[in-house]
Structures are given as C-alpha cells and as structure tokens.
Fold these 2 entries.
Entry 1:
Amino acid sequence: MENKIIPYGRQDITDEDVRVVIETLKSDFLTQGPKIKEFEEKFAKSVNSKYAVAVNNATAGLHIGVMALGLQEGDRVITTPITFAASANCARFVGAEVWFADIDRDTYLLSLEKTKELIESKPKGFFKGIIPVDFAGLPVDLEAFRKLADEHGLWILEDACHAPGGYFMDSKNQKQFCGNGVYADAAVFSFHPVKHIACGEGGMVTTNSDEVYKKLLLLRSHGITKDNMSENQGGWFYEMQTLGYNYRITDFQAALGISQLARNEKGVEKRNEIAQKYKKAFEGKITFQSLPDKFLNAHHLFVIEVEDRKGLYDYLHQNKIYAQIHYIPVHQLPYYREIGYNNDTDLSKAEDYYSKCISLPMYPTLTAEEQEFVIDKINLFYSNNL
Ligand SMILES: *Cc1c(COP(=O)(O)O)cnc(C)c1O
C-alpha cells in the first residue's frame, strides 16, 4: 500500500479496449470511418438523444455548440463560476461576453434563483443563452431551467462533461438522462482520460434539433458538405457553406470510445457505491455535495468541504493520495479578471465553496482497500486537528 499513488480519477483500459483500437488501426480508415458513426449512434442511444456528433474534445464541442445555437460577437451568456474554464471560454471564442451567476451552496450547481435574478435585472433580450454544468456528475434540474429560459427566449447548452449516465426524474416522473436533449437545446460530453469514457482526447455534442445537428456537422468539418450535389456534378463536388473547423475525432479513438461506453453504466454504478461508502464514513462529520430526491449523480467527482483545506490537501499528498481541487472559480482566473465580468454580482457562495472544496479519489477501479486507506487518513487528519 505504502508506495502506490491514489489519484483523484483515472482511466481504465482493458485488453478488449486495446484489441479494438489495434483492429481499427489495421483497417482501411484511421479517421472518418465507420467507427465514428457507430460511436455516435451508440452514444445517442445511451443518453436517449436523437443525434450525437463526435468531436476531437469537449472544448471544440462547446465551441461549435454555441455557434450552432447562434451565439455571436457581443452577445451574452450566463454560466457557473464553479466549472472548468472551457464552459465559459466557448462564448469568448466567438467574442461573446460571459456573465456569472452564483451557485447553490448545497448542490454546488448553478443556482436557478440567482440566474433568474441576473436575467431579470436586465432588459429583455440582454442574454442569449445559459450554459449550466452537471458539476461533479450531479444533473442540473433542466426542467426548471427550461421554464426560465423559455420565459426569456434563451437557449440552453448543457455542459454534461461530468455526467454521462446521470439522470433526474422530472415532474411527470420521466427519467431524463444528462444530454438527452429534452430540456436543453444541446449538450456536450468529454472523453478526456479523467472523465467516465476515455478516448485520449474526444468529445460528443448531443441534440434533438435537426437544425442544430446540421450546423454541428458543418462546423465540425470546415463548413464543407456534399449535400447539394446534383446528378450532373462529378463525384468530387463539395461546397464550403460556412467558416468551419477541423474538430473531427479519429476512427481509432471512436473504437476506444465504443468499447469504453459499453462499460459506462457499470462504471456509474461502481462510482455510486464508492460515494455511498464515503457518505457513510463522513455523515454528520464532514460536509459533502447534497443529492436532491430523484437525482442520480454520475460521480465524476466526490467533493467534500474542509476548513483547513490546504492542510488536508498537503496531508493527503504526503500519503500519496492525490486529491484535487475543482475548481478555482472561473471569474477569479487572471484572464477573466483582466477582461472584466459582472463584478457587481454577488458570487460569494462560489468563493466560499472554493475555499473549502477538495475532490477525493473516485473511479471505478478504486479498490475497497484503497478507499479505506483514504477514509482512514482523512479520519486521522480530523482527529489530529481537533
Ligand atoms: C473536461 C471538461 C471540459 C473540457 O473537456 P476537454 O475534452 O478536455 O476539452 C469542459 N467542461 C467541463 C465541465 C469539463 O470537466
């Protein structure tokens, strides 16, 4: 036990994963082959969305996501400060402004009330969209956000990078998977190795809108399409209809994604078992992310709050437990401080959360023995600090 590093998250690559990647490497296609289509179809099925568009990473997915929803220079969006910077940066890529609303102190998610307050403090049409984040794997109540968004004519782009397999039951008791496109206009997932499904790099954009889907396809691949080819044109015909990018994933990454996706449901179950153990150990002693009724947290992270956060972080690292902090509030990052944001909005809950948060090891291959070691060390830290 002594020398083994326990990270906060890690990928799991099986022999079968390796086999399918090698098989694809030896096939006719390294990119734009059949594995991408298969990955998209299987992913869409897994989250119950109509469409899925695979991309080279979630940051690219967020970029073409906001573009497909029509975001333009000078427009304004609202997001949470407690997220990875890319959730906000995607708006900056098109020259739009990022406004932050505070979090709910119990769920750590973008607060519906604070978002509503911010929207209603401005004239109609001031904001164009909301980018809520299923932070740590806990689904945002998108039914409630949809209602708010509809009242003000806003779109919703769900950053579901932490939450493939997460869901909530809506007011009609229907199971709503993160990224299913029912309440949000589109959603984005990441296949970075620390996330649930590892492709090396990779991402997916899901939507139920035909129009958004078509735009995503164009933007992913240079704005080029063969769709308008008529009978008298040669086979080489194509049109560039808009300024797009090369945000494609490779076929061998998609093969890895398919193999990983097949294990995700089990992985989410395992993550929830690990969460249960932490909760049992900490209940009544240590604050952790709350779980509303009828929500399933996909648990990319397991976050606890501790007064002497640096003390616990250092102590765990000394014991080779590489706990991590998620996240430094985005509005406090030097880039956002410099360009400015809605400085007069109260973001104190996000700042208070940040001063205490620490993410404990959470991944399906974390063994019971390793988790007990982590729990013991945390208990020891607390008893030494009383
Ligand atoms: C990981 C992550 C991203 C970016 O994903 P990449 O695939 O690394 O580009 C965006 N948003 C959130 C919330 C993330 O956790």
Note: Residues 264-282 form the longest helix (19 residues).
Entry 2:
Amino acid sequence: MGVPLLDLKVHHEPLQQEIMVVLEQIFKSQTFILGPEVGRLEERIAAYCQSQYGVGVTSGTDALLIALMALGIGPGDEVITTPYSFFATAGVVVRLGAKPVFVDIDPVTYNIDPAKIDRVVTAKTKAIIPVHLYGQCADMGPIMEVAKQHKLSVIEDAAQAIGSEYSDGRRACSMGTIGCLSFFPSKNLGCLGDGGMAVTSDPELAERMRILRVHGSKPKYYHKLIGGNFRLDTIQAAVLNIKLNYLDEWTRKRQENAIRYGELFRSSGLLDRKNVRLPVPVYRVPGVRHYHIYNQFVLCVDRRDALVAFLRQKEIGVEIYYPVPFHLQECFEYLGYREGDFQESERAAKETIALPIYPELTMEQQAEVVEAVTAFYM
Ligand SMILES: *Cc1c(COP(=O)(O)O)cnc(C)c1O
C-alpha cells in the first residue's frame, strides 16, 4: 500500500475549519505583518519553552542568523558546532563572516560530543551551537559548563526539538543564551509556509533581536543597527496559535509510535541480528530521565543504501538526514577538513535512515514499514 514519510493532508484536515476562520478574519483586517497574533504566539512559545521572550521571525534559519547577529558574532570569530545537522546550522555562521569549528557527535545520540568541545576552544571562540537533533536534547549539562568556563554564548538549534526536555526536565531553548525554533511544515509545530522563532530569557538580547528583525530600526526609519527583514507573517502566527493547542497531543502520538516501532523491531529479530539499531531514548547514565519528541525516528542500519532503495521501491517514505556531513561539503572545502576527521558523523551519514513517525501514522502502517525492513534482511 505504501506509507508516506509525512502526511500533511491528514495532519491538517481536522484543523481546516478552525484555520479558515482566522484566515478570513485576517483577510478582512488586511494586516499581514507582525501584529497581535505574533505577539501572542511569542508569549505562548516562550512559556512553552520555559523561557521569557520570543521573537517571531521568517524561518528557523533566520532565527539562528538573528541570534548570532544579536550576539555580535562576525569576522574573526569562531563558532563551535556539530558537522552533522541541517545545513543552516553552519551556513549562518559563515554568512556573518565567522568561522565554523566542528566537533564530532556522540554515536548514540547523534548530538555534539561535549567531551570534545574544550580542545577546540581558542581565543577567537565566541559561541557554541549545539543541535538537538531529531528531537532529542544535546547533553546540555557539560556543554553549559564548558561555555561558562570560557565565557561563550550558547545558541540552541532547537529547530527539530520544540518541547524536548533535557534529563533534568529543562526544555529546549531554556538552557542556552538563545534558542532557535523552526516552524517549517515538517517540524513538530509547523506553519503553512516558513516561520521561526528565537527564544531567550535575556531582555536585552530579546530587544536587540526585535530591532534587528525590522532592519535594525527603532523608532521606524531610525537605524541603530544593521538588521534585515526577518518578520513573521500574521497569517503564519495565527495558524501556529491554533496548532500549538494540539502540540502536546501530537508529541505524545509520536512517542507512542516510537515505542511501537521498538516493540515491532524487537519481535522482528533484526535487533538481535544487529541489522538494525534503534534510536536510544536514554542517556547512557543509568537512571537518568529522558524525553525525546521524535521529530525524526532514525535507525542505524546495515547496508543502508540498498535498504533505502528497497523501501522506496515498496513506496515506503524514508529519508537520509543527512548524507554529507558539513566538513565534507564542497562549499566548506576552504575550511581544510578531510575525510576521517569526524568519524562518527561520517558513519552516521552512511548508516542512518529516517522512518515515518508522524502523529497520524497508523498501527497498520507501522507494521507495514517494519515488515518491509524485515523482508529486506531476512
Ligand atoms: C529545519 C532546520 C533548520 C532551519 O529551519 P528553516 O525553518 O527550514 O529555516 C535549522 N536547523 C535544523 C537542525 C533544522 O532541522
């Protein structure tokens, strides 16, 4: 029958009436930029993230960009981050004239390995960007310790991790200096286009980002800073204000789906044969609480490329996040990294595969996915 990687149609259908009502109101008002819907969303998202201020922006990429701009990061500065993420994480650093410095990932969580950060800190280092990849918080305790020791800012790339919690219960975007969210349609909280938000508990940084969002002007046409157009649309904010009411329920369904995949794979025999390794929803510290919001459900597998081809032929939607780590990207050749520099990232790029995990995925669809994976190996 086939199973899509993501089914936005079934996701949005039950909300259509509710969304159309606010779209009509906005159409009547003819105010399309920022406005009360954006302000309301900023307050609600900041609170949801256990933080103080939200600044609604054009995308997750721009949330990262504006965060770095607010921190004054530019030419001559170095920013430490992971080589294994969506391009934007490193792209924004370079766009501001700064240099990304990569640190390999932990092979179990796929997040930056905090133990390896200290050794690349230099006098030029200004910030660390940990990514909460796939919806699982990076190991923020030791990351914040290194940052404190060297007086570095920490920008959490929480584009895939809204509502995700660290082992101590703190939420993504509440632990670093600034947290960045994306509302791209495939994220756990997505709008009907592009959108994002920068979240912080620092009132001065929040104000700076608000000014940067409108070309650095305050009041209008008087420019304190050189910013850009990073404004979030009223329509997107209104849609997000509706969808936010359902986010916890969707997250719970994703988590239930993850548990069900776990059960199905355990009974498939593939785990014992070591063809498949499940995402690890626990830190390796025994007894430590864990919370994953499963923006993606990512397996580490044998003969990955052949499996991908096999599943696609069976019309099972799968994706590779991400096939090429940053240090091997053509555009970053000038940084001078080589193959072998970040072995865990390189291995993850070769061995991982994302399966459908969206909230509306049915038990039958999950069984079909696992049966297809099993058929490939058995
Ligand atoms: C999606 C994503 C971004 C960028 O968000 P956009 O809204 O698409 O600009 C940044 N970082 C990570 C890890 C992402 O997954």
Note: The CA atoms of residues 263 and 299 lie 14 Å apart.
